[in-house]
Design goal:
There is one protein chain. This protein has 27 helices and 15 strands. It has about 750 residues and is α/β, with parallel strands linked by helices. The strands form three sheets. The protein has an eight-stranded parallel beta sheet. The longest helix is centred in the last third of the chain and has 31 residues. It is globular and about 70 Å long.
Length: about 750
């Protein structure tokens, strides 16, 4: 550890023991800061007033001198009121895809209100984040990015966000009390991009070791994030100890076992089998209590919410109901020994992922060990596979109805609008539901779906989907437009009208094979929407959210076309139609090359920006190499030998051409070689050579990818449509929709 690092550690350990309470004055200042950052010219036109009470609410009313009064129960309510006014009175919005605030810049007088608007919070909690989000999306963020995102969080009424940034520093401080040194964590902590799974005990060391500088800087960042969240009135969830310990712990204490994670059984022995203190070992209670106390000592006053999962995608040592009851009791006892008001936030994902272990008796015994007021369950995938329905509403435990939707951060227009709009209200009447939330593994995809769900925070009943979408797009783009409205009507009936299935992964980003990916909607109908959104282009091309959506919709249209090409290629191979397969190779590879160039028109779709953000955290050459490797690996191979290949896939400039296109080129060589020589297609040989390509690409640190936009988005979009629109229309008509594959 360097001298500078030691000084910073001492400094932080002193200043961050100070407790802070989000006072009324602080919440008003924080909400005011949000308005000043986003619409500085309108800041003096809003009057802010916090009115604390027994329930959460916000009110918007007309004040004197043309000003608007924003009143609410806390800073979150004020932020929600502010964004409600932006959406419905100024056709403006703050979004993931960039802000649409252009109409606010020249306003001299705010639109007058004819009546006071009041919204009461529907359920107690509005939850946000997934444990994996901190690896797939936010891992490289700096404070400026976090500040902007926390503003977004506040405007959506979220009051219970997960806050996992900087916890590695807490781990080191905790285990120092048990005789461990910083070097003992070298084989424990992974590189930054894989910390999500190391934190859950799934594996260790991959992409590491983690530098002390990273730990200190991330702790400082995490504390800043935590303080800002609380300044709005949010109640952030902090991590808890769930039994996973460094290897060195095993040599100092007895009774240490090894975790069994399905995810990493194929990892090298030095990276799998994380050491685990069984909860029936007295050490568990001791370490767990010390961990919470260390959190409190360094983060200051907490809101008593802690997330820790003993068996997330891991197998418990026994399925005996008494064992599972006892381990849950020790888990909550370890928290409450340091914080008597502690509430254990537990993911319900384990009950879905290991159904053969977690049967009703096991689940009930595990949950019944904890009083209802000290446990809250995240039903992560409620829109597709809710667990409350299989567990008698988690046997009375309060739970959050979560929309997961995104796996691995992979792109692709997808959602279940009817379910998300209506089902929470139906389930609330017959279950122990105590909140709503979103839990995407990755961000910046399908924002409309998450906004629809988060609107339930202040919405007492479902609304008409068509009208909601119309109002949403009006605020997102900056005004009414018949073509935009018609386009989103079509997308609502196609891509966002999915059956109860997991988000399909695009054929482009899957390792090439003969296995088809068939759409659950009519590709031809989707093309109608693409054409309409292009007609809206002249009106909105300078609006950031529209530009983001235009790229996303065009990318989806190209992805659909590629899937249709692949199905016809597969059919031609099966019927020994060599001419068709030969003709499709340049078409499919050319599409990938054009897609790669098109994605370069926006930096948010560029591999170069992802790598650049990773490199900014490097403090030496060793860091630089590790961070680049981790940043590339998680969006490609995912693991040392591609254990979860393409799980975190992205359709980004640089990645499409150098990674996916090369794989498809290689696949065509094998397929055509087999057809021309009248020999069986050697899939095993292709897989082996494809792996070598993937590995070489991941280890190549010499190529520099551009990180700033190239080309004119509007011109490139029109060119793409002119080249591929007719092809897509012809091919989609020849490729029927089916649920096969």
């Amino acid at each position: 550890m360097t001298t500078v690092t030691r000084i910073i550690l001492v400094f932080l350990s002193v200043i961050y023991t100070v407790k802070a309470i989000a006072s009324t004055e602080l919440m008003e200042q924080t909400a005011r800061g949000l308005i000043e950052r986003t619409t500085p010219n309108l800041a003096d036109k809003f009057i802010i007033s916090i009115k604390e009470g027994d329930s959460d609410f916000f009110e918007i009313s007309q004040a004197s001198e043309g000003r608007v009064q924003l009143s609410g129960s806390d800073g979150i309510a004020i932020a929600s009121a502010y964004h409600h006014y932006l959406r419905y009175y100024l056709h403006s919005s703050i979004t993931w895809a960039g802000d649409n605030l252009r109409l606010t810049t020249d306003i001299k007088t705010l639109p007058k209100l004819t009546q006071t608007i009041r919204k009461d919070r529907y359920k107690k909690w509005s939850y946000y984040f997934n444990t994996c989000t901190f690896s797939y999306s936010t891992v490289w963020w700096n404070w400026e990015q976090w500040e902007k995102h926390i503003d977004w969080i506040a405007t959506r009424g979220i009051n219970m966000p997960l806050m996992f940034v900087g916890q590695e520093y807490i781990w080191v401080k905790t285990f120092k009390k048990f005789g461990l040194e910083l070097k003992d964590f070298d084989s424990f902590f992974t590189g930054p991009t894989f910390l999500a799974w190391q934190r859950m005990g799934n594996f260790r060391g991959f992409g590491g070791p983690l530098s002390s500088t990273w730990m200190v800087e991330q702790f400082y960042l995490g504390k800043k994030i935590y303080d800002r969240m609380r300044a709005f009135g949010m109640k952030p969830i902090l991590p808890a100890f769930a039994g996973h310990v460094p290897e060195r712990f095993e040599t100092k204490y007895s009774g240490i076992s090894r975790s069994d994670s399905i995810l990493t059984r194929t990892f090298p022995k030095e990276q799998c089998c994380v050491r685990f203190i069984e909860p029936d070992n007295p050490l568990f209670l001791e370490v767990g209590t010390q961990f919470i106390q260390t959190l409190i000592d360094h983060f200051g006053e907490t809101d008593h919410l802690y997330n820790g999962d003993l068996y997330n995608e891991m197998m418990p040592a026994s399925d005996d109901v008494n064992y599972l009851r006892d381990v849950a009791k020790v888990m909550i006892d370890s928290m409450r020994a340091a914080d008597p008001e502690a509430v254990w936030i537990i993911q319900g994902w384990a009950f879905y992922h290991a159904k053969h272990i977690w049967k009703p008796p096991q689940i009930q015994s595990h949950l019944d060990a904890v009083d209802n007021e000290h446990m809250l369950i995240l039903d992560l995938w409620s829109e597709v596979n809710p667990q409350w329905t299989h567990t008698n509403s988690f046997y009375g435990k309060p739970y959050i109805w979560c929309e997961l939707l995104n796996f691995g951060g992979a792109p692709g227009m997808y959602g279940r609008m009817k379910t998300v709009m209506h089902q929470p209200y139906i389930d609330d009447k017959i279950s122990s539901m105590s909140g709503i939330g979103i839990a995407p593994e990755g961000l910046f995809t399908n924002e409309i779906m998450f906004d629809m769900h988060l609107d339930h925070a202040w919405q007492q009943e479902p609304v008409d989907i068509k009208e909601w979408v119309k109002d949403y797009i009006k605020a997102r783009y900056g005004g009414p437009n018949i073509h935009a409205e018609r386009a989103w009507d079509i997308f609502s009936d196609t891509a966002f009208n999915a059956p109860a299935i997991r988000q399909p992964k695009a054929r482009i980003v899957r390792r090439p094979s003969m296995w088809p990916v068939r759409a659950y909607y009519d590709h031809c109908r989707f093309l109608d929407g693409w054409e309409d959104i292009l007609k809206a282009g002249p009106a909105f091309i300078k609006v950031e959210p529209f530009r983001f959506d235009l790229i996303d919709i065009t990318r989806q249209a190209l992805s659909n076309l590629f899937e249709d090409y692949h199905i016809t290629t597969r059919n031609a191979f099966r019927s020994s139609d060599l001419c068709t397969v030969e003709a499709h190779k340049p078409l499919m590879l050319g599409l990938l090359e054009d897609m790669d160039s098109y994605l370069a028109t926006d930096e948010r779709n560029m591999l170069g920006l992802w790598l650049e953000e990773a490199e900014k955290w490097a403090r030496n050459e060793v860091d630089l190499e590790r961070y680049r490797y981790g940043a590339k690996n998680i969006v490609s191979m995912w693991g040392p030998i591609a254990q979860l290949r393409d799980y975190g896939a992205r359709q980004w400039n640089g990645l499409v051409k150098d990674y996916y296109l090369r794989r498809w080129d290689l696949w065509f060589d094998y397929v055509l070689g087999a057809m021309r020589s009248h020999t069986p297609y050697d899939e095993a040989a292709f897989e082996a050579e494809c792996f070598l390509h993937e590995e070489r690409w991941g280890l190549d640190h010499d190529k520099v990818y551009p990180s700033r936009p190239i080309g004119d988005l509007w011109e490139e979009t029109q060119w793409i449509y002119e080249k591929y629109g007719t092809q897509a229309r012809a091919l989609c008509q020849a490729t029927p929709v089916t649920d096969e594959g």
